[in-house]
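pinned: reference chain
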Amino acid sequence: MTSGGWPWARPVAAVAALAVVALACSGPPASLDPPPLAVDGNDVARLVGDDALGRFTELRVGVTSCPSRAEVAVGSTFSCTVDVEGVAVPYEVTVTAIEGDEARYRFGPTDPVVDLGEARSLVRSALGGDFRDASVDCGAGGQVAVVPVGESLTCVASEEDPPRRVEVEVVVEDESGTLVLSGDPVPADARPPTTGP
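pinned: its structure tokens
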């Protein structure tokens, strides 16, 4: 901890992490105005990558990319991306304070990262009965999807014997990615036809 209680590393349980990175001055040295401060993107990428490793402990975390050099001021933001299970997860980085040649940041994914395995399990559990072992497709390939709060995934549960399909809306309820079912399941073949323009 630094003075004032600011952490030097990310708190794993927090929705957004705080971090400190040393700054460099950029701009012409003869300027009368103070030069803008810039941060090395590699330093921020390491912090954001460490946050992703702590946040997504059950998932494969790959490369983190941030701007190579970002000019910063208190309140400024920039974006980084982290590869999580092959999906580019956007992170927003906000400068919260600048003290001397160090900046403090708050950062985290811009939207919840949903584990699609959990979504499929929720659908199977909610449908119960013959659908406990059903095949469930939530429309996004892979293990995870980035889904904004309040938005939904349409999952289709399919059972072969007897053949039937049921469509279920799974809504992302909060920043933690909590999933809830929306409405009643609808037989997938009973959807109203779409109309053209």
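why pinned: Residues 113-189 form one domain. The two ends are 60 Å apart (CA to CA).
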